[in-house]
Amino acid sequence: MPLWARQEAEGTPSEPYITFNVGSAALAMAGVAGEPRKYRRVGLDHMRRALASLPDGDPARAWMLAGLRQALAEEPPAVHPDDSPEAEVSAYMRDGSRERLDRAVDTLRAAVDAPRTEEPHRSRRRAERGQVLRMRFELTGEIADLKASIAVLETVLGTAVENAAPDDETLAATSPSWAWAAWTGTRPSGRPPTSKPPRKPSTIPPSHGRPPLPTTPSGSPTGPPS
After folding, report:
1. Which of 59, 91, 180, 182 gets the most CB atoms within 10 Å of its CB?
2. Neighbours of 90 (CB within 10 A)
């Protein structure tokens, strides 16, 4: 879809939808054009603009968020400083070291508590901390980490209800993480679906995709709770 279509739609009720479609078209061009990074940047920018201009309560927000989350999940992994929480989580995905998760949790807590951290960055870091706490619970089975994860993620979602801050990307990542953690907390055994650490590289936020399906002891998916 050409950019002039979005320009002609400016100020009309169709603007968010056309803007999002322009973003989707740009992302599609990234796979065949000679400047993929440029087209991906333009595509994601238009998707974010569309969400920002969408009226409150518009039912299109759900599928737009899903499209943005998918596009972000397909982004090439970023390069992070060695002492960043993103680097610690990525290293944990390779070696399964609990110490890396401990450092990531501490670093994220410090970022949330720092007076200079402003919204929406504070909510994003808080959401990331909740996700890393959930990962540590998956590794160790410590219920305190699961409870802390649920509490932190509920704080992020509660902040959104109060219109105080998290951006759409943070909410798109937080909602499925909270749902998975909350459901795990209701399991009679109180144990995570799997205690084995994942082994594929990843970066924060780890939940731009869907949360993993729980498994039975044999390793087969059990499916979502009824």
Report:
1. 180
2. 20
141: tokens are 């089975």
Quote the CA–CA distance of 161 and 21 in Å, as a whole number: 28
Cα three-residue angle 78-84-86, rounded to 5 degrees: 50
DSSP conformational letter for 219: S
Look at the block and give the residue holding tokens 């603009």: 49
What CA dihedral angle connects 96, 97, 98 and 104, to 10 degrees?
-100
In one-letter notation, the amino acid at residue 65 is L
Per-residue tokens: 74: 């397909």
Cβ-contact 22, 4 below 8 angstroms: no
Per-residue pLDDT tens listing for the chain (226 residues): 555 566 666 778 888 899 999 999 998 888 787 788 888 888 989 998 898 888 888 999 999 999 988 888 887 766 778 888 888 988 898 899 999 999 999 999 999 999 888 877 888 888 889 989 999 999 999 999 989 998 888 888 776 544 444 555 565 555 555 555 555 655 444 444 444 444 444 444 444 433 444 444 444 444 444 4
Please indicate, yes or no, whether the overall pTM of this predicted structure exceeds 0.85.
no
Helix (H, G, I), strand (E, B) or coil at 141: coil
Query: What is the rounded distance in angstroms from the CA atom of residue 20 to the CA atom of residue 65?
Result: 11
How far apart, in whole angstroms, are the C-alpha atoms of residue 88 and residue 81?
Answer: 9
